[in-house]
Fold Sodium/nucleoside cotransporter.
Amino acid sequence: TNVQGSTARGKLTLEENMSSVEEIPERRLVIDAEVVMDAEVVMDAENDKEQLIADKKIDLEEKDNNYDQCRKRTQQLFTEHEATLKMTLKLMLFLAYNGYFIAAMVYHMKHKQPLDFCNGFGFLVILTVLAYITGLYYFIVKRYFGEKIHKICLKPLEDAFQNAMKFWFVKWIILLVGTVLLMAFLIVDSKNDRIRLVSVAGLLVTVTAGFLISTHPTKVRMRPISWSIALQIIFALLVLRWDIGRSILKCLGDKMTKFLNFTDSGTKFVFGYLSDGKMAPGVTAEAVLAFSSFPVVLFVCFCTQILYYYGILQIITQKIGWVMQCTLGTGQVESFAQAANIFMGNLESVIVVSPYLRFMTTSELHCLIAGGFASVSGSIMGTYIKLGVSPSHLIASSIMSAPAVLGLSKVVYPETEKPKINDEIISESKIEAINALDAGIQGLQMGTNIITAIISNSIAFIASVAFLNSILSWMAGLVGHGDITLQVILGNMLSPIVWLMGVNEKDCLKVGLLLGTKIIVNELVGYKELGQMMRGNAISVRSGIIATYALCGFSNISQLGIMMSGLTTLVPERRE
């Protein structure tokens, strides 16, 4: 029985298992069908996605094509009507400016403000008049009548003058007549004070000394000398005897100073009280030179490179250089640098003409360097004025020094090479820059190198002077004269030269010491001591005025190091 029962249960289990085995393929088919359906759904989704992406690409390509076609049509439209569009833009700017000018004029008349031609609406009037004159000259006179005027009027006069200059006696007649007229004017003008004629002897001695130390005395031309003296006298009359001329030059100097003073905004933001000395309200200290004055070099380099990028300074160089070239016969670049020296510092004026330094002859480089030592910058004139120095005399000195240094430098180092710089080089000289900002950044990099060289050279030169003074004082102290310095020695040596300038005889030693201080230390210390002398009536008024002119210049040892460092940084290939 047990065996039969076990057999029956075994059969039942076997049947169940067989039925389960038969059901497995059906389940697998269902699962496989579901998997296939899911795969088809996924594939359909992927196909839909790919189709959507393809449709989007087609849409984008169509849009790009439409954009390209639109851009090309716009460019073609601008190209076809470029002249009309430019004229329309210029007309709109012209009308907008004139509308602004009329509004400013109405406002000025309504409020009855005083008319100052150096500030406010008066200065706007001057700029407008100059803009109209420039526009009329370039767009009407030069374009339609320039060639005729040059051919009928200017060319015959130029040819006649050049033909006359070929005869040696014509030059000497002009020189003789000019000298006689000059002497007659000086004799009449100094009839009440003949001591003023001593300065004429000083002028002759200066020119003679230039001949004695000249590198090529036989190559010296009389034209730069005669014209430099003539222009110096003309500028002196315009500045000292004509109030309008003095006002114009003072206005130009003020504008240049204001422009350079914009550097203070950047230096104050970066360096704080180190740039202006204002530590707290009511608490001030002396500003640090490296943080107050040297950043001007960065600003000038930045602006100069941008102006060169747009070709503006090339035009200015050509125009100013043409005037000097017609009179003194000097080169355009060196003449423009001397004109820039009137309002800018020695290194700033070198930076202005930096693209042309590699083309300049040795004589032109000598003239450029000498001009930097002969005047001061407009930015530092305010410091001298605060010390009590007359602003009119400072401006007159800077103006008169420009032609004087051109003439004298051509005596000391006359031109023996063929100048390489001409209008073509000036007009074609450009800065390799992507845009104006890139040009400005290149200027900043150049200015950074210059400032680094300036600081290092200033430290070394001033330290060397202090060391030499210490040795002299020690040696002189051993024999009872411990106050002997380079300034004192140089001041005593310069006393005869000071007398030839026209200084009263009793004041020669004092003014000589001022010049010695200027050369060894700097002109700022010299002006401080001059102000103390004039306030204490230690020297006469005439001697004080002459000393004001004599001290007006960057000719000192520290500036020599600054100039050397700047030039070797800008043109290292011209180091020798």
